[in-house]
Specification:
The structure is a single chain. The model has no long low-confidence stretch (mean pLDDT 90). Helix 2 runs parallel beside helix 7. The strands form two sheets. Strands 6, 7, 8, 9, 10, 11 and 12 form a seven-stranded parallel β-sheet that branches. Strands 1-3-4-5-2 form a five-stranded mixed β-sheet. The chain has two domains: 68 residues, Beta Barrel (Ribosomal Protein L25, Chain P), CATH 2.40.240.20; 167 residues, SPOUT methyltransferase, trefoil knot domain (Alpha/beta knot), CATH 3.40.1280.10. The protein is elongated, with a radius of gyration of 20 Å. It is 34% helix and 25% strand. By secondary structure, the chain is an alpha/beta fold.
Length: 247
Amino acid sequence: MSAPRCYVPPACWDSDAVVLDADNTHHLRDVLRHTGGAKVTLFDGAGREAEAELVAGPGRGALTARVRSVVQHPPPAVELILLQAIPKTPRMDWLIEKAVELGVTAVQPMQTARTVVSLADERIERKAARWQRLAEAAARQCGTPWLTRILPAAPFAETLTRGDWDALFIGSLEPDAPPFREVAAAVRAAAPRRVALLIGPEGDFSPDEYAAARRAGARAVRFGTAVLRVETAAICGLTLLAYEFNP
């Protein structure tokens, strides 16, 4: 059995000892029944991984991980960014987990013209915190040394204006949108370092949003002939991007 993995933010690392937070301590001690001497793997979400050994303290009930060896993994060749119109909660939760598994660097939740969720809803901040916790749990489970960042939810127009990427794809239901493979070849030849994917809500992007995306340099693509559900379109697009740009 592989050693359990613990996410520890970079600011919490010491040279040779890491004091584990309450969540990690509870999981290791109370759920897995691990005590002093047990092996664990630490990762900081920025490519650093360490093999460590549990020791007691400081403080009653606390656990510290004594670092034995450290590996710094190189970053992915191309950063993948998902710009996602917020679907209903169960779908977004599932989508976050799968995006982490596919190596997505960041997820930008968006409110679009046809998005059901409103950014004025006071629950949106709690949702964002939950999504980040889901990303951490998914990173622990799948073994990636990188932590997907869940960015603060933003309106569609704001997302386009503040974006920082070399290439932008938009999953399109428009009948004249070319197949993904035709567009990807030209983008890959330009050797981008950051690639973003726009995925709309259940009711699709509005005509004005499609026009705004094109003005921002987005390339419309389709993922086959079927009309895909939001989460299916996102995972299909991310899988294709990961295959094309981070083989």
